[in-house]
Amino acid sequence: MTMRSDITRALAEWIVSCDLASIPVEVQKEGVRTFVNWLGCAVGGTRHATVDSALAAVTPFSGEASATVLGRGERLDALHAALLNGISSHVLDYDDTHLKTIIHPAGPVASALLAVAETRPVSGSELLNALIVGIEVECRIGNAVYPDHYDRGWHITGTVGVFGAAAAVGRLLKLDVQQMTWALGIAATQSSGLREMFGTMCKSFHPGRAAQNGALAAFLAKAGFDSSEQAIEAPRGFAHVMSDKQDYHEILDGLGDTWEAALNSYKPFACGIVIHPVIDGCIQIREELGDDINRIACVDLITHPLVLELTGKTAPKTGLEGKFSVFHSAAAALLRGDGSPTAFTDEAVNHPDLQAMRRKINVTTDRRCHEAAVTITVTLEDGRRVEKHIERAIGSLERPLSDEQLNAKFRGQAAAVIGQSACETLIRKAWALPDLARAGDLARASLPH
């Protein structure tokens, strides 16, 4: 394609000019759904050991206690709160997914926005506008470099999430085009996150750090801190350094007319997205077999090679590792009918019954099988066989979660952390985001009472 030298600035111009009135109603609705899902995940994950460790590490270095660690009583400065809330929103691997790129869009963007919104007057409609813009930016940049960027080993949620957070917070700070161009450049030079970290605490650190660094980029730019003005497209810029694919049409074509933010999806299961068809199918087989589920001799899965590449851990030792084990996930779905966070605890991955079941599971890869599909064959001890083919799992764009299912997911995570009464109040406020006078009140509403 013809080389352009104004990609970063052109994107900045759109970010600065895109107000809520120019965003279609259906995209705004999906933005609210995205926010509701993110908030439930952030509160649901806030008591995880990963968050405890991060909070203990950064608290001594926090500035003015101006923003809330969601679901907890602690308060930090806005940048550290963005970090912690980004971690908690992703630590259960239960958050949203842009399926074209496997980006988890809300973690970096919403975590930065709500923390900053606590420090200044920001209406719910302003936050929604910034959220949608930030998600659009990160997903379009992701489209431009995916899949090569991901295949190299970059965790794309972290690497492009920083752009989304910078754009979104820049909207709240009312950056001009020059400042927004700098903010994108400052974000670009902080882009990071390695797939090697999957199955460890560092995976959720990536969206948290993207939220923190993106917000910092916007504040620096506001103060006149400059950067390259071709940070995305320059020969030594983000796209060329971090990918062999640079399709800038994906960033600018149809910008403001077609919306990646409308293509978000929400996980019904708390693990890597490529395992979801397996869990969906195994739960259905469990329901069909009834008591015979305890008479399984072997389970054969036919999947795309990416499934084993991402989730091939045969003997996970921790709950975080279990989220990247198709063997454990299938076992938990068959024996417990579970794909929620309770299936991915240290206790679950080390339970003898689940360990025994996962040794019965065999995986064959076939590139002709779509990444979002699976064929499952269960053979019983008496030789009977049950087969299930899942073309697209629940939670996909073809089978999306309803608002009612999002509420059930929210309650299933948050009520155990903050109590039923606080949970119901928080759900109502989250759905009312466009009408809130002060969006920052949502953070304080996330505390137990």
TrEMBL record:
Superkingdom classification of source: Bacteria
Domain MmgE/PrpD N-terminal: 10-249
SUPFAM superfamilies per record: 2-methylcitrate dehydratase PrpD
Domain MmgE/PrpD C-terminal: 269-431
PANTHER family noted in UniProt: 2-METHYLCITRATE DEHYDRATASE, 2-METHYLCITRATE DEHYDRATASE-RELATED
Protein family: Belongs to the PrpD family.
Name assigned to this protein: MmgE/PrpD family protein
Record organism: Litchfieldella rifensis
